[in-house]
UniProtKB/TrEMBL annotation:
Gene Ontology molecular functions: delta(3)-delta(2)-enoyl-CoA isomerase activity
PANTHER family documented for this protein: ENOYL-COA DELTA ISOMERASE 1, MITOCHONDRIAL, ENOYL-COA HYDRATASE-RELATED
Annotated pathway: Lipid metabolism; fatty acid beta-oxidation
Catalytic activity: (3Z)-hexenoyl-CoA = (2E)-hexenoyl-CoA; (3Z)-octenoyl-CoA = (2E)-octenoyl-CoA; (3Z)-dodecenoyl-CoA = (2E)-dodecenoyl-CoA; a (3E)-enoyl-CoA = a 4-saturated (2E)-enoyl-CoA
Compartment(s): Mitochondrion matrix
Function according to Swiss-Prot or TrEMBL: Key enzyme of fatty acid beta-oxidation. Able to isomerize both 3-cis (3Z) and 3-trans (3E) double bonds into the 2-trans (2E) form in a range of enoyl-CoA species, with a preference for (3Z)-enoyl-CoAs over (3E)-enoyl-CoAs. The catalytic efficiency of this enzyme is not affected by the fatty acyl chain length.
UniProt record similarity statement: Belongs to the enoyl-CoA hydratase/isomerase family.
E.C. number(s) listed in UniProt: 5.3.3.8
Organism listed in the record: Coturnix japonica
Protein name: Enoyl-CoA delta isomerase 1, mitochondrial
Amino acid sequence: MCPSVPLPSPCPPGILFPYSSPQLWGRAALQPPVLLPTQRRTFSNNKILVELDTSSGVATMKFKSPPVNSLSLDFLTEFCISLEKLENDRACRALIITSAIPRIFSSGLDIMEMFGKSTEHYAEFWRAVQEMWLRLYGSSMVTVAAINGSSPAGGCLIALSCDYRIMVENPKYVIGLNEAQLGIVAPFWFKDTFVNTVGHRVAERSLQLGLLHPVTEAHQIGLVDEVVPEEKLQEKAAAVVAQWLALPDHARQLTKSMMRKAVLDHMLAHREEDIQNFVKFISKDSIQKSLSMYMEMLKKKKS
Ligand SMILES: CCCCCCCCCC/C=C\CC(=O)SCCNC(=O)CCNC(=O)[C@H](O)C(C)(C)COP(=O)(O)OP(=O)(O)OC[C@H]1O[C@@H](n2cnc3c(N)ncnc32)[C@H](O)[C@@H]1OP(=O)(O)O
């Protein structure tokens, strides 16, 4: 089958036809088929650092928003811009997402964005959360979450939206959709993304109890695909990416799209309604009180 990129015609003499080599399938196949020295392109903002190795087509994205990589409106905006840049870059075929903050992958949605703000702000914030998920879950790149710390709620959603999850083995790290513990509810597309990863029964129990799973348990239920020691994480992520990139991009991408289309389409069809539901829900006094108590609890835990 032909890739969806235009074929060079005629094939230049003296070189292998680029599409015959699995390593050259896909967007990077348009590069001239000569051995190039490793080339790195870096771009950064104050929340995220991205390094693209143009010879392998693999980008590494590091969250670097202290103290806990919470997903504020600014963070989500920078995240979406970075994803868009990589998606539109023909030299990029894969993305590894990890954290530069010790012990934390991401603490999830920034609770302060959902507390004591205007309805307009809630709507803008929620649209940004949706946008992040649409871009990541619908990405045509190979995406691997290299989870080097705890990853509750929205942080877990980022990991779930990737194609593969590798987590560092550490008894202190947890991951899961713990919204119920905060007195809030994971929206249907969080739930669908979770169900597509761990299956209905496991998701139902985990969501209702708002469980944060220790790493070994997360592995057992299929929430993470592999567990590795910290020092092996990047090496493992690179090996997984290489395995996935060995396939023709168009076949992998069409398969990914087939598997995820129903969930993405469902959300797109109900996007505005979902924003209205969020604004109505989060503006309730009882929900604001729950969030306030949760933040208090976090602060007390420290003292
Ligand atoms: C009918 C249905 C309609 C649909 C309605 C939809 C409803 C909404 C759905 C929302 C979906 C997703 C929600 C979320 O993602 S909510 C966020 C959930 N996250 C958590 O529960 C994590 C909370 N944090 C922690 O457990 C810990 O902080 C940590 C991440 C394990 C790190 O622990 P630590 O000891 O290293 O650091 P700590 O001292 O606790 O924190 C440092 C400071 O950071 C603040 N902070 C932590 N997490 C958040 C956060 N998510 N948002 C904002 N701020 C956060 C913490 O308060 C500390 O601040 P300070 O130093 O005391 O000022």
